[in-house]
Amino acid sequence: TSTATMWCLYALSQAPEIQTKLRDELFTLETETPTMDELNSLPYLDAVVRETLRVHAPVPTTIRVAMKDDVIPVSEPFVDRYGQVQDSIK
Fold first, then answer.
1. Residue among 44, 43, 37, 38 at smallest CA distance from 21
2. What is the pLDDT of residues 9-66, one digit of tens each?
3. What is the dihedral of CA 37, 43, 47, 50, to 10 degrees?
4. CA distance 71 to 50
C-alpha cells in the first residue's frame, strides 16, 4: 500500500493538470471523512488509482508454478518420436 501511494503521489507531482482535476473532484465531497461508498463514486479518483497501479505495479512480477500437469486430448492418436502411440499431449 505504501509503495502504491508513493508512486501515485509521484505521478501526480509530475502532472499538475491531473492533480488539479483530481483535487476539484475531491472537493465535491461534502465531508472531510468520506465513506468508502462516497470515494467509490468518484470516477476520476478511480481512474487515477487504476492507472497508477497499471503503470507502477507494487508487485511487478508474480512467479507462478503449475500445481498439476495439463493434458490436452488430440482428435486422432499419433506416434511420437520414440515410436509410442499417444492419444494426448502432456
1. 44
2. 999 999 999 999 999 999 999 999 999 999 999 999 999 999 999 998 877 777 888 8
3. 20
4. 36
